[in-house]
Design brief:
heterodimer; A: 79 residues; mainly alpha; Non-ribosomal Peptide Synthetase Peptidyl Carrier Protein, Chain A; B: 408 residues; alpha/beta; Peroxisomal Thiolase, Chain A, domain 1; 2 domains; two-stranded antiparallel ribbon; globular
Chain lengths: 79, 408
């Protein structure tokens, strides 16, 4: 799976969970500062991403996923 | 010290009869039933397969993403409160948020969220349980969401007294304004528990109508053929305001909330006192609190849920407390029983009866009970002057609430 494919998969999740416009989702965007994803929605995004990409994202890892690119990198190397 | 007068300046509702107050009231005056068959697959196994479901789904008013975070009872409270707030014209009035409070209760709370998340827990494990679960199921959720949306900072309250909740929440709003703790209170009730578990529970108590083949005729207060209540869902919210505050801003005043009477039976967890003593005392207290005479009360919007025992017990209580002159109506014959929202919706019907000089009908009263020896506006709405009305609400647990509304 390419980085672009992971990014668009995350965009689908973000739209479903938090109503984020998929066009706004890019690797450099911060989940909280740019995309307005609050902490409860972030929990939903993580659980949905685990299901979609077949990865485990432990809670202590989530705090390191500041941007969409951070999440893509984590999923790419752990899927 | 003279006590503050409290008036009603806004109304909001979403009910089995309509998505707002106007459509609900029109349907009521036309004598329409909001009861229909439950067509969901889960209903097949139940002894009760009818209910009064919302006329307009919350998804038509609230966007999908926000709705994911709301229990249905919270969503409809937001819709009703939004209508009442706009109706009161308070949005740009410069009201100090520290003088604005919310009092909205629910009889059962976020039960459908609890049960849906339990299904997820069982099927997929704890990690799949939604992080929104707790704020969706907590019984103060509807009041809290409304308080958040309106930025109320004088306190957000959520009383729970089963089927008396909506009326008790309004009575609390009256107290708050009289006590000087708020100038405006957004008050009412909300309920949305059309789900197999609550239905099975009520059905096991033999409290519900099983007239599954004739839904529109199932809710029939005071009729000999009544066999229990019909579960309804919805929300009703009114804006209570200190009278001089409302007058100063030139607000439209629907009616005065002149008084409230609250008692508890101390008798049984579900059965009302057989002589209706708690209800009689509630009505008497409400009249005294309102400073009116019982002869002034020309109309009663009764609790009358269509149960064999409760309906006639209320008649006995009305007789004892008021005499036989008021014209009664049981609007649950059309809306079904909205549990924690019932007292709020019926307060709205009472207020509009004052405004429009008309008593809404009681449908399905084809063969009146022998013990019904009072005048009921049966089948058709009855045009008449309504300067003062009582709205009764009683709840499991022995809660009795009577509210007196008078022409503002």
């Amino acid at each position: 799976m390419t980085r672009d494919e992971i990014t668009s998969g995350l965009a689908e999740i973000l739209e479903e969970v938090a109503g984020v416009n998929p066009d706004d989702v890019a690797e450099e965007k911060s989940f909280t500062d740019d995309l307005d994803v609050d902490s409860l929605s972030m929990v939903e995004v993580v659980v949905a991403a685990e299901e979609k990409f077949g990865v485990k994202i432990p809670d202590n890892e989530v705090q390191n996923l500041k941007t969409v690119g951070d999440a893509v990198t984590y999923i790419e190397s752990n899927a | 010290m003279s006590r503050a007068d409290v008036v009603v300046t806004g109304l909001g509702a979403t009910t089995p009869l309509g998505g707002d107050v106007a459509s609900t009231w029109d349907a009521m005056l036309a004598g329409r039933s909001g009861v229909g068959p439950l067509t969901q697959e889960w209903a097949g196994q139940l002894p009760v397969r009818i209910a009064a479901q919302l006329a307009v789904e919350p998804s038509e008013r609230i966007d999908r993403v926000k709705l994911r975070r709301l229990d249905r009872s919270e969503a409809i409270a937001l819709i009703a409160a939004g209508e009442a707030w706009a109706d009161a014209g308070l949005a740009d009035s410069g009201l100090d948020p520290e003088r604005l409070a919310v009092s909205i209760g629910s009889g059962i709370g976020g039960a459908t969220t609890l049960l849906a998340q339990d299904d997820i827990l069982e099927a997929s494990g704890p990690r799949r349980v939604s992080p929104h679960t707790v704020p969706m199921l907590m019984p103060n959720g509807p009041a809290a969401w409304v308080g958040l949306e309106l930025q109320a900072r004088a306190g957000v309250h959520s009383v729970a007294s089963a089927c008396a909740t909506g009326a008790e929440a309004i009575a609390l709003g009256l107290d708050m304004i009289r006590a000087g703790r708020a100038d405006v209170v957004v008050a009412g009730g909300t309920e949305a528990v059309i789900h197999p578990l609550p239905i099975a529970g009520f059905a096991s108590m033999r409290a519900m109508s099983t007239r599954n083949d004739d839904p529109e005729r199932a809710s029939r207060p005071w009729d000999k053929g009544r066999d229990g209540f019909v579960l309804g869902e919805g929300s009703g919210v009114i804006v209570l305001e200190r009278a001089d505050h409302a007058v100063a801003r030139g607000a439209r005043i629907y009616a005065r909330l002149a008084g409230a009477g609250l008692t508890s039976d101390g008798y049984d967890i579900v059965q009302p006192h057989p002589e209706g003593l708690g209800a009689i005392r509630a009505i008497a207290k409400a009249i005294a609190d309102a400073g009116v005479d019982k002869s002034d009360i020309v109309h009663v919007n009764a609790h009358a849920t269509s149960t064999p025992v409760g309906d006639v017990a209320e008649i006995a209580a009305l007789h004892a407390a008021l005499g036989d002159h008021p014209v009664l109506s049981a609007t649950k014959s059309m809306t079904g029983h909205l549990l924690g929202a019932a007292g709020a919706l019926e307060s709205i019907a009472s207020i509009l009866a004052i405004r429009d000089s008309v008593v809404p009908p009681t449908i399905n009263l084809d063969d009146p009970d022998d013990k019904l020896d009072m005048d009921v506006a049966a089948h058709k709405a009855r045009p008449m002057d309504v300067p003062a009305v009582i709205n009764n609400s009683f709840g499991f647990g022995g809660h009795n609430v009577a509210l007196v509304f008078t022409r503002g």
